[in-house]
Amino acid sequence: MITRHQFIKLLALPCAAVLSTASLAQSWPSKPVRIVVPFAAGGPADSLARFIGTRMASDLGQPVVIDNKAGAGGTFGASEVIRSNDGHSFLFSSTGALSIVPALMTNLTYNPERDLTAVAYAVTTPSMIVVSGKSPFNSIAELVKFAKQNPGKLNFASAGSGTSTHLGAELLKKEAGIFMTHIPYRGAAPATTDLIAGTVDLMLADVPAVVSFVKGGQLKALAVTAPQRAPALPDVPTTTEVNLKGVQGGTWYGLMAPSKTPVENIAKLNSAMNKVLQSPEAIAFFRAQGVQAVGGSPEEFGSFIKSESLKWGALAKAVGAKLD
Questions:
Q1: In the chain, what's the furthest Cα-to-Cα distance?
Q2: N or C end: fewer C-beta atoms under 10 angstroms in the chain?
Q3: What CATH superfamily is the domain 126-224?
Q4: Model confidence over 216-239: pLDDT tens digits?
């Protein structure tokens, strides 16, 4: 016969199991969180990931370690995260690696849509149409007029074939109805150096990469490729203002997870990043860098990536972009 004391203990067992399960779920992360940046240390993705990651740590209750795994247009780092099975490895990536490169690689070993899931949209930065400080062009209207009157006389630099700097200029060509010759470089730095020297005529560069040169007079900014003006350069008109509203682009960054990551872990990461993005410290830091915090839900970021992949992937194929 079961005593009253034994009966109470039996009733408590299911409750204890539920509490135990909840406790396990709440214990994640149980070790340092690794964020893989698929680009070299010192670049914009790396600096943004380090700023955000170190500040997410307090909310997650574990250190956040940044691990640079550069190569193959960002796909090397993505593959590293997808192969991981420790439940603590994530990917901080950008437009090119998530929306452009997969459309150009025929031997990609993974499917981004199947093998990765969105966690949080971090920041975005528009591009600017810039020319040398020595250039005769002082407005986008002057540049477009010259290009139409002199087909093929202008050229544009990019950080490489298939990059956002390349495809942004292709959008400009399409929207303005002009032809310019593409001069691809191995990275934005050498392209910007030649642009300043006047070796090439123009470039669509991310605001953080050229804002100091514009302020210093080495470059002239003709338009920002965004609906709103850039706070870092408020006097520069947008492409919408200069009747080139189809020329919208730049670079965005966000956090991705392996597709099998539990939804509660994704929700915890998303919450931690949103708290960082909304902090006054982060807003001031991003403003100085020429980028804008975005945030939002994993679902919103996932939908955004799909739309960007359709836009840039189709354009990359249409212009015959090839990975260097």
A1: 101
A2: N
A3: Periplasmic binding protein-like II (3.40.190.10)
A4: 999 999 999 988 898 889 999 999
